[in-house]
Amino acid sequence: MAVPRIIPVLDYNYVVERITKFLEEMLRRSNANGYVAGLSGGIDSTTVTYLVAKMLGKEKIKVLIMPDLDVTPKEDTEDAMDVAKTLGVEYYLFDISEVVKSFSRVLPFFDTNHNLSVGNLRARIRMSSLYYFANRFNMLVIGTSNKSELLLGYFTKYGDGGADVLPLGDLYKTQVRDLAKFLGIPEKIISKPSSPRLWKDQLTEDELGLKYEIIDSILYLYIDKRMNINDVASILGIPIDVVNSVVRRVYRSRHKRSLPAIPKLTSIDIVYNMKLPTYAEDQMP
To answer: How far is it, in rounded angstroms, from Cα 175 to Cα 188?
Structure first.
């Protein structure tokens, strides 16, 4: 199944400039020393690392390469190390398989063959490692999720979804590929099949059942252009069931894009949405 390209080609000079200013402002506001990223050797984490290293300076990012040698292809680890070495960024390589095994020894009902629960555990171990490093060295955790993944809920809640900033969060996967080419990222990484590598032989497009070109086109027309499902199917020339399958994922994953629900007992929402007075920075209480 093929569809015409619907996703806009952006001005990637502007995209880089906008993301760079955003990242600089986040560091200034938080008084942090820089960013720590999980570098997997895939396109998203490589693009984030390139952006920070080339635009803010290699001293502003440190990367953790965290394979689980029981499931992570050796090629991915080698690609991640090559990226770090090419950019001259400080990196730390460690195998998380022993941490996973420690859970298997003490966690009730642990089932090595239950891919979803063990895979999400791997993602949360990586998140915890990143935040330990961030706390230890006064840094921010920079996430790698893109707009396609965020809308689909294709990330682990409090795993790879746990980050302080998501610089690719308003770019569809198709646009991340464009940006990667603009930044000069090796074609080997750009064309590598996407995978969070949460279990052996996991591939994103196989799991989702569709190519990103189709997914992104559906999301763009439905979310950005506010088209109804019938029109989306007609424009793309695909069955309405395919459109429905993507849209259904967006609605079913809403909880992943929200803060934890609180039962409302008063008339004022004072936790998440409380309106605070505006202070100049030197007047902050």
So the answer is: 17
pTM here is 0.90
138: pLDDT strictly greater than 60: yes
A 10 A CB-CB count for 50 gives 23
Reported as a single tens digit per residue, the pLDDT across 165-181 is 999 999 999 999 999 99
Give the integer Cα–Cα distance in Å for 48 and 210. Answer: 25
